[in-house]
Fold this protein.
Amino acid sequence: MKCKMTINKMFIIDEVDERIYGSFIEHLGRSVYNGIYEVNHKDSDGNGFRKDVIGLVKELNVPIVRYPGGNFVSGYNWEDGVGPKDKRPRRLDIAWKTLETNEFGTNEFVDWAKEVGTEVMMTVNLGTRGIDDARNIIEYCNHPSGTFYSDLRISHGYKEPHNIKLWCLGNEMDGEWQIGHKTAYEYGRIASETGRIMKIIDPSIELVLCGSSNTSMKTFGQWEETVLDLAYNEIDYISLHTYYGNRNNDAEDFLAKSIDMDEFIKSVVAVCDHTKAKKRSKKKVNLSFDEWNVWFHSNASDDEQASWQIAPPLLEDIYTFEDALLVGCMLITMLNHADRIKIACLAQLVNVIAPIMTENNGGAWRQTIFYPFMHASVFGRGKVLQSVIECDKYDSKSFSDVPYVTATATYKEDSNELTIFCVNRNIKDGIDFECRLENFEDYKVVEHLVLYNDDLKAKNSVLGEKVMPTRCENTFLENGILNTKLNKSSWNVIRLKKIT
Ligand code: AHR
């Protein structure tokens, strides 16, 4: 089997917005407590932040992290989580049926983000609360001083404003599971008014409007049309969320699911541009894919958890090698839409459907999905090139004409680095891969990294990594043509650089 790819330095989709390598920390399970924050852990710093986890987050090079939810935010009073810790109330978290101690809140998260070297993407509660809550939290976070909430922040030890630039107007407000969920009309109105007021307080912020929770929502499409119609002028991005699972144990169908993601993106872009035309607007609304991942392994065990525990293990999917392949396909899909996707958050970051896992009082380790995300985040910067790919296709249970190879290429002009990312979805055979590099004179192969395991169900654990990248030494570039063999079911990162 063969695959031919062609790229040209001049044919560019767009610059990668680094925020597409964002992630997400929600007050859920062991994400915050015993994830990023564990006061009595031997490896914690003076703030109670686990240094081993910070090290792994830094490896992922995550430029922005969404907080504090997720479903959690729709019942959250942010005031509970600021000020003296001994005065903070314990609350029932209705979204996940757990007990929230509020020991960790907005200021702790901002401190953690600073230590990690990442920006904060904050979500406001449009479930149980609304305009009043949103105007207060933005005054607390971003207003310099001289008002009730800005002075309250200063009294809590934060003289300088947090200057949080990106805000989500609620979370998954179309879902009937959401606390205070709304019709598209109800949500569009409250989002538009909330956004307007927030931008009066800080005109430098950007706002994300809630789109559909996934493509199977009955209201998908109509929801986007209505909320965009009502809030177009106030907002900057619309959100997309999606999670996939291999419930039928059908690897060929599972690995094709990034095609659903691709269609989702195209549909939302179409509604955005339809609204733009209808309004004769000059403004382009882009996409924030602010929750995406594989999520299904933990569904059954989560149902067995008792209610109202503090930080129980929830949504602790242990990922397989095939999950890492789909994560790779999803990253490639998003990169190929770099012209419209400006923000994306791998959901989530630690312990909860996450690339990083921790043991309470113990070690931290990398899941299989850690690697494709890290490779894309570290090497997939610069410009995304338009690639033309010719290869065989297959039909799976839910998709037809699925290309065996999905690929993209990014080019960093300043350092003359070119990176090709590709997944071979063929689970039986390797593929001879040829890539024609046009306008890339004097380049050489730096390395070809491969994520591969004979067993699609191989997993990592705190005891060791069965799934980790190795190097392929049989990748050659001659006369502008790159040749290699892609292992069956493999994630590949081929790095090239100009000879100087
Ligand atoms: O990421 C887990 C949950 O998935 C989030 O809380 C919610 O927004 C989504 O349904």
Remarks:
- The first helix runs from residue 51 to 60.
